[in-house]
């Protein structure tokens, strides 16, 4: 796991700019970019420069620690690689490339990318099984080729400035380049208020974009053109077996069990020790049962037997599996103290308060191991979120005429926030109206009421319209899954997993998010994902082969945070009041709308905790990245 960065520029243009604008030497600029990424690779920092290209690399040595140094140059000295990630099928690819006549000088996975690009060109990503973001500079062709893995496990950001192409693993790696002028993207802020995370291809920083999951990019220096291509779409193709046809439930269980076991085995390849995150949930528990390491890591809040503390459940399972268990109980003081650190490392604001727990979990693990495996992606692959059961719950009600349901919803909207009200309101909506992903905070109307600034941001529903259209042939739960695979998974789940682990120079691997596992998961019949109100039905059957029944059937918690308590305590109230009455809050938000959020916090039904937290997170983040505009 590493950090990569660099820039491409025409030599005569670059020289003129450096003189006229008093830019530092190119070597110094690259060194500053690399320094901003040092947490991603504390073991080594190296660079490579030519007349047109400057490539930087920060290394966290996991495979072939004595070799595989980067930037890596091929034997003809005309192609240079910087690569962040792991390729789990590199040994098979290496043999294939050796047979094709390529010569290798290292034993790691990095050189496979160089020779793979020589052999397959822009089709290289289609051959890879792993997590990756890489860039290859072709000195002869004067082109840069970059690619990001299919599900967005590893990040890649880029921008252009007057013909100059600048890229990095994190946005903070681009900011030191003097050619980039920092400005806030207000459209990203407006969409964030609905989705809880940065959902756009354009980031919170004007002009800086993310290379989307499953995409590759080619930058041509001669005409400074950028071509972006999509090589992978996580489309679901669920089978609908008729009676007596198709695979049986037991056959599906065997197939999925084999795919997961094979992936966990592949993800254990390393020349250093590998540990695992372990919560009380079934996802991490199955990995703990299958992986070949012996150290597990858990965090929790509050009392030993409280809802927000998964440590006792994890400890119980670890003892049963004869694994070491390391844990950290997070105090409220530690929670609030970590928020600025979390927002700095996240690069963009995150309204997901569980990032704080992941921050401390990664810190604890980093004290013992360099690599961990974790359960991200299981819910998106196998239908694990409770909300995916909603179509089943609404099925009979939605047989009523839509006009009648709309009338009932209008009546229900005037009721107090009691049990059943949400059912009546959501039952009157189409799927496209009611589901924008696992996080659904402010409606388009609510965020307009909150924001002072006016933008042309699309409504969440309009933003997702094409994605829903692409998945129109799927059942409703599978359509929800597809939306989350495209947006929620890379934008929230994997974003925080990468940033919080890398903040502590810890490599985090996700065995469920594997190419071969997806080949099985995408075809699962709908009834094997949700069965009534049971989520992740078939996956739980697989887990039941390796875990005690209580672990295989346990409901999802997902780093629960006692926000209701934290936001109303003396410490929390002080933090929120200070932020909500700051110059930054005055700049972006209407005070009366903020007061409404403050009035709705707590532990009651219909509280505003998640909305309030999303606003608070943005305010903290903005003061970190735009301090010159915060006073």
Question: Secondary-structure blueprint of this entry?
Answer:
Elements: E1 2-8, H1 11-20, H2 26-36, E2 44-49, E3 53-59, E4 72-73, E5 79-87, H3 90-99, H4 110-120, E6 130-138, E7 143-148, E8 157-161, E9 164-168, H5 186-195, E10 209-210, E11 215-220, E12 225-230, H6 249-266, E13 274-277, H7 282-290, E14 295-301, H8 311-321, E15 324-330, H9 332-346, H10 354-366, E16 371-373, H11 378-382, H12 390-394, H13 402-412, H14 421-427, H15 431-434, H16 444-450, H17 460-463, H18 465-470, H19 476-502, E17 507-509, H20 515-521, E18 530-531, E19 534-535, H21 537-544, H22 549-552, H23 563-566, H24 570-580, H25 583-588, H26 591-599, H27 609-625
Parallel strand pairs: 13-14, 13-16, 14-15, 16-17
Antiparallel strand pairs: 1-3, 1-9, 2-3, 4-5, 5-6, 6-7, 7-11, 8-9, 8-10, 11-12, 18-19
Descriptors for this entry?
631 residues, alpha+beta, 6-stranded antiparallel beta sheet, 27 helices, 41% helix
Describe the structure.
The structure is a single chain. By secondary structure, the protein is of the alpha+beta class. Helix content is 41%, strand content 16%. It has 27 helices and 19 strands. The strands form 4 sheets. Strands 2-3-1-9-8-10 form a 6-stranded antiparallel sheet, with helices on one face. α3 crosses α4 (110-120) and α9 crosses α10 (354-366). The mean pLDDT is 93.
Low-pLDDT regions: none
Overall 3D geometry? globular
Which structural category fits the helices and strands?
Answer: alpha+beta
Quote the average pLDDT: 93
Strand order of the largest sheet: 2-3-1-9-8-10
How many distinct helices? 27
Number of strands: 19
Beta fraction: 15-25%
Largest sheet: 6 strands, antiparallel
Share of helix among residues? 40-55%
Distance from N terminus to C terminus (CA atoms, Å) equals: 37 Å
Radius of gyration: 25 Å
